[in-house]
Amino acid sequence: MANVLVTGGAGYIGAHACKALAQAGYTPVVFDNLSTGHRAAVKFGPLVVGDLMERAAIDAALAEYQPIAVMHFAALSQVGESMQDPARYWRENVMGALNLIEAALAAGIDKFIFSSTCATYGDQDGVVLDETTEQRPINAYGGSKLAIEQMLRDFAPKGLNHVIFRYFNVAGADPQAEVGEAHDPETHLVPLILQAVAGTRGALTIFGTDYDTPDGTCIRDYVHVSDLVEAHVAGLEWLIAGKSSEVFCLGTGAGFSVREVVAAAASVTNGPVPMQEGPRRAGDAVRLVCGSDKARTRLGWTPDRSTMPQMLRDAHRWHGSDGF
Fold first, then answer.
1. I need a surface site. Which of 29, 165, 203, 286 has the fewest CB within 10 A?
2. In whole angstroms, what is the distance from residue 180 CA to residue 315 CA?
3. Which of 76, 74, 60 lies closest to 6, judged by CA?
């Protein structure tokens, strides 16, 4: 089986991508510094503990495993933190990606799948974002990801074919509960709700209830993690087939409000969600969603699992298991 280097493969999305790659007949080789990932999440191929800031470590991994492609998930990804410490985000995300790109080219690798973000668009309320929407990030996280996208375009003439994926919130877990979402500290809405229901944290705070939406709370696009990683595997096979470098957005085009997520969680868990209302947070947009027409048409991708009840059921199953 052909090897694929998966940076950040011990993390939430990366671990699910490794399972999807294994199911598709590839061997995922995880490259991760384990700063936020989990060694126990690496279940589908070998682990190389290494840091993207160390070029020699990347070179050694590529020489040992000779992957046919790189799937790049590893990144600092907290928006608030990026505002407080932009230097760290520009240094680690951008320089780490540059090291990885140069190492891949030096090793003769010509296929690169990049997990980007809709944060590159900034806050564009009321627009269904797509691949042609103007990118104007408003924080160092989005800015660093946009810089990597630009690097990939600049390196394309050097022979590095690439697929870039942009998306908003990811939720859910592997339906078989082999891998799931475990952050410390946790910042994502779905696991925060499930922890509140389980009593392992205090009540959930809803930040802002007076937005111009049907129920007064913010609306965000969510995609099931298993749907998301299937798109990444499709992107790999797109490049293997010799097709052009492309950008794809992955979303439902509709989104869910905070109250809708809470109500769905109460139904799935058969219990009330302890919650309290708080003031708006600075910088929160009213409605952020993206479409996926291009991915559906060209990759044949459909986000079949990306209903809120399904995402919550799978996440709930994972959180109720023994975890890693």
1. 203
2. 7
3. 74
Average pLDDT, the chain: 94
DSSP H or E stretch at residue 164 = strand 161-166
**Minimum mean pLDDT range among 91-95, 102-106, 182-186, 244-248:** 182-186
Q: What number of residues does the chain have?
A: 324
Distant-in-sequence, close-in-space partners of 185: CB < 8 Å, separation ≥ 6:
none
The tokens of 33 are what? Answer: 């510094």
Write down the H helix ranges in 93-224. 96-106, 140-155, 189-198
Beta bridge partner(s), residue 163: 113, 246
* DSSP secondary structure code for residue 94 in this structure: I
Set 141, 167, 211, 222: catalytic member: 141
Arithmetic mean of pLDDT, 319-324: 68
Residue with tokens 């399904």: 310
- The helix (H) or strand (E) run that includes residue 15 is helix 12-23
pLDDT of residue 182: 84
| Rounded Cα gap, residues 267 and 116, in angstroms | 32
Annotated active-site residue 141? The verdict is yes
